[in-house]
């Protein structure tokens, strides 16, 4: 608490018990008097000061300077982006950005994929992504891998929007939870990409660590073989996607360290923000960096006691004085197209998607 507050307390002590203006000395007064002197707001303010939760005078004086977005909406984000000349945007994505490409959210239990795997007697669906189980029985994983193999799907509007952000010099980094490699297919350069849960693009022998390419693995996976290492002739080659209990790639930690302190806008796309440490990234940008969530559901919110005592952390859409966090409800493609439209790149994005999709179709033939 500030020194002026301490002075005030001293004054109160000196004046006691004669003054009637001090809240501590109103106990003997009639209720009516008390009510006239202390509005509910005043009482709240007094209690907050007494409990040292925050300095209310300072807070109200600063509130206009503290305002981050003039308008807590997608328009506010676009204004901010233009006015502040953002150059260090971080995008974070989950399965929601790939669903429109036809990729099932394969960690969720409600997809047909797991149904197809019943014949393999998995102890539970997640066993497919457990190293112990994989070492004993890699077959179910490769059945799934065949369905998810890169090259089978076309990146979405959202993926190309992120590529445009990069081409406009605005993207610091794209962090993805997805292992579908659609970011790479969309043309987001590898150095701008952190594949937090790994990638199918490379694979390693579990015994001798020899590295293999996607093409090499694909050839075998599509023949319904379990890829075996040609160097040691013993190990199974596992695509470099992160299994349960495995460490995240080093690049994740290296980039998080240097990126987030520079982040001037965070855009979170299609993630339920439940898988850690990825989900925790939302609390890493500086406290005045706006955060936009484009998702079907409101997620990642600060809850309970954390919110009550004003600790930083999760997203804070519903706080009365929120000028930082924006939630846009809907599909990632629609949200990104809307953002592009408002930034004046709408047609450019549509053209890019069309041209790139045509290229991919041609290569398939
Ligand atoms: Zn090997």
UniProtKB/TrEMBL annotation:
<feature type="binding site">
    <location>
        <position position="229"/>
    </location>
    <ligand>
        <name>Zn(2+)</name>
    </ligand>
</feature>
<keyword id="KW-0808">Transferase</keyword>
<dbReference type="InterPro" id="IPR003000">
    <property type="entry name" value="Sirtuin"/>
</dbReference>
<protein>
    <recommendedName>
        <fullName>NAD-dependent protein deacetylase</fullName>
        <ecNumber>2.3.1.286</ecNumber>
    </recommendedName>
</protein>
<feature type="active site" description="Proton acceptor">
    <location>
        <position position="197"/>
    </location>
</feature>
<keyword id="KW-0862">Zinc</keyword>
<keyword id="KW-0479">Metal-binding</keyword>
<dbReference type="InterPro" id="IPR050134">
    <property type="entry name" value="NAD-dep_sirtuin_deacylases"/>
</dbReference>
<dbReference type="GO" id="GO:0016740">
    <property type="term" value="F:transferase activity"/>
</dbReference>
<keyword id="KW-0520">NAD</keyword>
<dbReference type="Pfam" id="PF02146">
    <property type="entry name" value="SIR2"/>
</dbReference>
<dbReference type="InterPro" id="IPR017328">
    <property type="entry name" value="Sirtuin_class_I"/>
</dbReference>
<dbReference type="GO" id="GO:0046872">
    <property type="term" value="F:metal ion binding"/>
</dbReference>
<feature type="binding site">
    <location>
        <position position="208"/>
    </location>
    <ligand>
        <name>Zn(2+)</name>
    </ligand>
</feature>
<feature type="domain" description="Deacetylase sirtuin-type">
    <location>
        <begin position="67"/>
        <end position="346"/>
    </location>
</feature>
<comment type="similarity">
    <text>Belongs to the sirtuin family. Class I subfamily.</text>
</comment>
<dbReference type="InterPro" id="IPR029035">
    <property type="entry name" value="DHS-like_NAD/FAD-binding_dom"/>
</dbReference>
<dbReference type="InterPro" id="IPR026590">
    <property type="entry name" value="Ssirtuin_cat_dom"/>
</dbReference>
<feature type="region of interest" description="Disordered">
    <location>
        <begin position="1"/>
        <end position="35"/>
    </location>
</feature>
<feature type="binding site">
    <location>
        <position position="205"/>
    </location>
    <ligand>
        <name>Zn(2+)</name>
    </ligand>
</feature>
<feature type="binding site">
    <location>
        <position position="232"/>
    </location>
    <ligand>
        <name>Zn(2+)</name>
    </ligand>
</feature>
<dbReference type="InterPro" id="IPR026591">
    <property type="entry name" value="Sirtuin_cat_small_dom_sf"/>
</dbReference>
């Amino acid at each position: 608490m500030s020194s002026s507050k301490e002075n005030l307390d001293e004054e109160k002590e000196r004046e006691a018990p004669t003054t009637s203006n001090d809240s501590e000395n109103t106990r003997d007064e009639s209720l009516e008097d008390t009510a006239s002197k202390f509005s509910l707001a005043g009482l709240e303010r007094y209690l907050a000061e007494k409990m040292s939760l925050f300095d209310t005078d300072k807070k109200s004086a600063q509130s206009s300077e503290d305002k981050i977005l003039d308008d807590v909406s997608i328009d506010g984000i676009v204004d901010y982006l233009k006015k502040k000349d953002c150059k260090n945007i971080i995008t974070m994505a989950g399965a929601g950005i790939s669903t429109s490409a036809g990729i099932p959210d394969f960690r969720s239990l409600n997809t047909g994929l797991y149904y197809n795997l019943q014949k393999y007697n998995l102890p539970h669906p997640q066993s497919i992504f457990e190293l112990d189980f994989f070492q004993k029985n890699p077959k179910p994983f490769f059945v799934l891998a065949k369905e998810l193999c890169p090259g089978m799907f076309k990146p979405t509007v959202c993926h190309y929007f992120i590529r445009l952000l990069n081409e406009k010099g605005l993207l610091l980094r794209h962090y993805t939870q997805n292992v579908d490699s659609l970011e790479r297919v969309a043309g987001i350069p590898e150095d701008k990409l952190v594949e937090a849960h790994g990638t199918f693009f490379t694979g390693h022998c579990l015994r001798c660590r020899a590295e293999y390419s996607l093409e090499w693995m694909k050839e075998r996976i599509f023949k319904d073989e379990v890829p075996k290492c040609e160097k040691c002739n013993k190990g199974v080659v596992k695509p470099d996607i992160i299994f349960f209990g495995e460490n995240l790639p080093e690049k994740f930690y290296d980039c998080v360290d240097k990126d987030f302190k520079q982040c001037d806008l965070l855009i979170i796309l299609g993630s339920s923000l439940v898988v850690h440490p990825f989900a925790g990234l939302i609390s890493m940008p500086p406290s005045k960096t706006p955060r936009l969530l484009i998702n079907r559901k409101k997620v990642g919110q600060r809850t309970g006691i954390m919110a009550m005592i004003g600790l930083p952390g999760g997203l804070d859409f519903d706080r009365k004085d929120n000028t930082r966090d924006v939630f846009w409800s809907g599909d990632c493609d629609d949200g990104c197209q809307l953002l592009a439209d408002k930034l004046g790149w709408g047609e450019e994005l549509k053209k890019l998607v069309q041209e790139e999709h045509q290229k991919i179709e041609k290569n398939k033939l």
